[in-house]
């Protein structure tokens, strides 16, 4: 048990709602004419990530994703102006999956661990496509900046869901600190091929422990935002006994 309390058991959360729309498991989505907007968006996004996994992110467009999933082009156009708006929508859906059923009790670290792993579950439903997107970002700085800003917004929501304010200067520092935790863990997730995401959970636990060791940033100490994490999560030594479970 760590100083922040017992780590939540990931298995109790169940399957992410986004997992239903994995394109490789659901190649045809029935009842297109009766799909509500959220179901349509999820189906289109699943198709886009399936295309990215197969052909690379540069080959993805809203129209191509709609054709691949046999979705109406006119509705796809009405819902999304382009790939960027589709990605921002995916981020909001991932946030919703993380916030649904999130812990309301326990320590801040327990609650943050829970919501962030829920968000990784949403990404995991489209794993290969999301990884293709991540690997395309160095060649697309405009998209990288857009997603960086969206990630900070998402992390502010994760803080608020855990009862931690994201407002004011202290809130900005908390949001930046949690964004660093997320990005560090995302590097571990990218290489985590386990079915239970055990390496991702370990990296997240380590990142939260590291953030705790470098200051009370969650409590808003203006001088205590987490220090940068190493580029490779595997390069970080194990946490000291009693710091993280």
The share of residues in helices is 55-70%
CATH homologous superfamily placement: Tetracycline Repressor, domain 2
- The total number of structural domains is 1
Number of strand elements = 0
Q: Cα-atom Rg, whole angstroms?
A: 18 Å
Span between termini: 5 Å
Q: What's the order of the H and E elements?
A: HHHHHHHHH
Low-confidence stretches: 1-8, 23-31, 220-230, 237-245
Number of helices: 9
Q: What characteristic shape results from the CA principal axes? A: globular
The biggest sheet amounts to: none
**Topology-level CATH name:** Tetracycline Repressor, domain 2
CATH architecture: Orthogonal Bundle
Please state roughly what percent of the residues sit in beta strands, choosing from under 5%, 5-15%, 15-25%, 25-35%, 35-45% or over 45%.
under 5%
Compute the average pLDDT: 82
| Class based on secondary structure composition and strand pairing | mainly alpha
Query: Mind telling me the CATH class?
Result: Mainly Alpha
Considering the chains and any ligands shown, give keywords for the structure.
single chain, 245 residues, mainly alpha, Tetracycline Repressor, domain 2, 9 helices, 0% strand, globular, disordered C terminus
General description of the model:
- This protein has helices at 37-55, 62-68, 73-79, 83-99, 108-124, 127-136, 141-161, 168-191, 198-213.
- It is mainly α and 245 residues long.
- It has one domain (10-235): Tetracycline Repressor, domain 2 (Orthogonal Bundle).
- Helix 1 crosses helix 2 (62-68), helix 4 runs parallel beside helix 7 (141-161) and helix 5 packs antiparallel against helix 9.
């Amino acid at each position: 048990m760590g100083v922040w309390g017992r780590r939540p058991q990931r298995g109790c959360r169940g399957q992410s709602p986004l997992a239903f729309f994995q394109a490789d498991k659901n190649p045809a989505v029935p009842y297109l004419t009766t799909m509500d907007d959220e179901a349509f968006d999820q189906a289109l996004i699943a198709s886009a990530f399936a295309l990215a996994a197969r052909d690379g992110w540069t080959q993805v467009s809203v129209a191509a994703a709609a054709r691949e999933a046999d979705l109406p082009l006119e509705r796809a156009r009405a819902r999304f102006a382009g790939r960027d708006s589709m990605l921002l929508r995916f981020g909001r859906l991932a946030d919703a999956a993380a916030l649904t059923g999130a812990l309301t009790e326990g320590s801040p670290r327990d609650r943050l661990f829970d919501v962030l792993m829920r968000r990784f579950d949403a990404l995991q439903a489209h794993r290969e496509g999301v990884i293709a997107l991540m690997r395309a970002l160095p060649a697309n700085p405009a998209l990288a900046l857009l997603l960086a800003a969206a990630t900070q917004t998402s992390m502010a929501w994760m803080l608020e869901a855990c009862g931690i304010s994201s407002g004011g200067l202290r809130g900005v520092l908390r949001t930046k600190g949690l964004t660093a935790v997320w990005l560090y863990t995302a590097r571990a997730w990218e290489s985590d091929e386990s079915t239970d995401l055990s390496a991702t959970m370990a990296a997240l636990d380590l990142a939260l422990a590291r953030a705790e060791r470098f200051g009370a940033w969650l409590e808003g100490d203006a001088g205590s935002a987490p220090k940068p994490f190493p580029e490779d999560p595997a390069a970080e030594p194990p946490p000291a006994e009693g710091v993280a479970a």
